[in-house]
Design a protein that fits this description.
Dihydrofolate reductase family protein, DHFR-like_dom_sf, alpha/beta, 212 residues, globular, Dihydrofolate Reductase, subunit A
Length: 212
């Protein structure tokens, strides 16, 4: 990548209407903290979002993942490079995969995998200089770090019309106060699942008083 056209860090998350992003894909994916609804996304089929997910992956040329999500992906996608999900499996298997961890002895057996996390800001800058689109998928604990430090360029939220009331939220209290920019109109399918694409800006929220 040239300095005139830096790459982007894109966060892709499935969220409930009350902001829960924990364990969407399977009943055993993430039950930490006694979470009872792991697998909530799989339990609410969305007829229109599959095509949007596929379209969003077309520019992906690297993955940046938290350790838990990396382990889930590494145990699943290399064995699913054929059939209905084969195009995603082949893509994930082929691209470089960066895993956020401070453990220097971390074993990463999936081909093309390497560790980041010693100096995240510098490493994110290097990824932007190396790749067009680095996607952070799931990895909610790691996403909290990126949101707190402003180390992302685009946030893609698939919002499901579900209320869980408990679980890890997209935004925690450490999120950097920011004004995001809606990049294009929302996409909504027949099940009421909505895709929102936001770009990060350098603006911070302002305050005022109505009628003052």
């Amino acid at each position: 990548m040239s300095e005139d056209a830096p790459g982007r860090i894109l966060i892709d998350l499935f969220s409930t209407l009350d902001g829960v992003a924990q364990g969407p894909g399977g009943v055993g994916e993430d039950t930490s903290g006694g979470f009872r609804f792991s697998g909530w996304q799989a339990g609410y089929p969305s007829p229109g979002m599959g095509a949007e997910v596929d379209a969003g992956m077309r520019g992906l040329d690297a993955l940046l993942l938290g350790r838990r999500t990396y382990d889930i992906f590494a145990s699943y996608w290399p064995q699913h490079t054929d059939g209905e999900e084969g195009h995603i499996g082949r893509l994930f298997d082929a691209v470089p995969k960066y895993v956020a961890s401070r453990n220097p002895d971390l074993a990463l057996d999936w081909q093309g995998s390497s560790r980041v996390g010693d100096d995240l800001a510098a490493e994110i800058a290097r990824l932007r200089a190396t790749h067009r689109e680095v996607h952070v998928i799931g990895s909610i604990d790691f996403v909290h770090t990126l949101l707190a430090e402003g180390l992302f360029d685009q946030l893609n939220l698939w919002v499901y019309p579900l209320l869980l009331g408990t679980g890890k939220k997209v935004f925690d209290d450490a999120a950097l106060p920011s004004v995001l920019r809606l990049l294009e109109p929302p996409v909504v399918d027949d099940a009421g699942v909505m895709l929102l694409r936001y770009g990060r800006t350098d603006r911070t929220p302002e305050v005022g008083t109505f009628g003052a």
